[in-house]
Amino acid sequence: MYQITAKGARAPIETAWDALAWADPSPAGAVDAKEDGRLAWRLDAFCETLEEAEECVEIITEASPELIARIEELQDRDWVTLSLEGLPPVEAGPFIVAGSHALARTSPGKIAVLIEAGPAFGTGHHGTTLGCLLALDEVRRRRAIGKVLDLGTGSGVLAIAAMKAGAHSAIGTDIDFDSVRVANENAEKNHVSGFTALHITGANTPRIRQGGPYDTVFANILMKPLIGLAPTIAPLTAPGGTIILSGLLHHQAGPVRSAFAARGLSFQHRIKKDGWSTLVFRKPG
């Protein structure tokens, strides 16, 4: 495996991130951008082959010529085990997300969610997941969480947290088979019943429509898919329901906010965490 790293100002890093994330197909298996100190940002991408890594460098250089991207070959090691060893518990309001290595040492009175590091996105450490968990805490303080729809469920962390916080039921969807498998396994590990992860693209399917309307909807994915889902998410949401959207760099929040406001949804506020934005909407009624 190869890691491609570039450091610089926020604007060129975000431009390069956009270029890599939206390349079709993208040579990168995973891409992340985050703050790396005061006024400094860092872009990381991961590839299986050197050829893909070199293609990533070309895309980064073309999108942001001021950045210098470096390739590092990663040794063939058990990265899951290593990440577990250094992965501390994450707290977001009343929620604490951790692997089994750390969950036993957590504070009493917290809503504990067991998520091991693995192939599915969502260990709680990413700014998008943190933002969604904080928004979920606001929901539970105001009303019953009710029925949950989690689009792009990944590890299932958000749906599982919602169930452990009192949700009536939850459906998670993902386009990745491994994520669906991991999410269902995580539900079992957390002794959660009433949650099912499904391999589904989009949200306008009979299975999703029949399960609605939903009182709380998560969509922690990317800007363009979120905009495309706005016409589908709005009717799936129950009157008075909450929609929590993430997977957005700060500059991407505007177009998503406009797309959902155009569907008659009321924007509530934005949560900013580690360079990422989470948008919270309410459906009138």
From TrEMBL:
Its EC number is 2.1.1.-. Gene3D superfamilies: Vaccinia Virus protein VP39 (3.40.50.150). GO terms for biological process: methylation. Keywords: Cytoplasm, Methyltransferase, S-adenosyl-L-methionine, Transferase. GO terms for molecular function: protein-lysine N-methyltransferase activity. It is found in: Cytoplasm. It catalyses: L-lysyl-[protein] + 3 S-adenosyl-L-methionine = N(6),N(6),N(6)-trimethyl-L-lysyl-[protein] + 3 S-adenosyl-L-homocysteine + 3 H(+). The keyword Methyltransferase applies. S-adenosyl-L-methionine binds at T129, G152, D174, N220. One of its GO terms (cellular component) is cytoplasm. HAMAP family: Methyltr_PrmA. Belongs to the methyltransferase superfamily. PrmA family. Methylates ribosomal protein L11. PANTHER family: ELECTRON TRANSFER FLAVOPROTEIN BETA SUBUNIT LYSINE METHYLTRANSFERASE. This is Ribosomal protein L11 methyltransferase. It comes from Hyphomonas chukchiensis. The lineage of its organism: Bacteria, Pseudomonadati, Pseudomonadota, Alphaproteobacteria, Hyphomonadales. The gene is prmA.
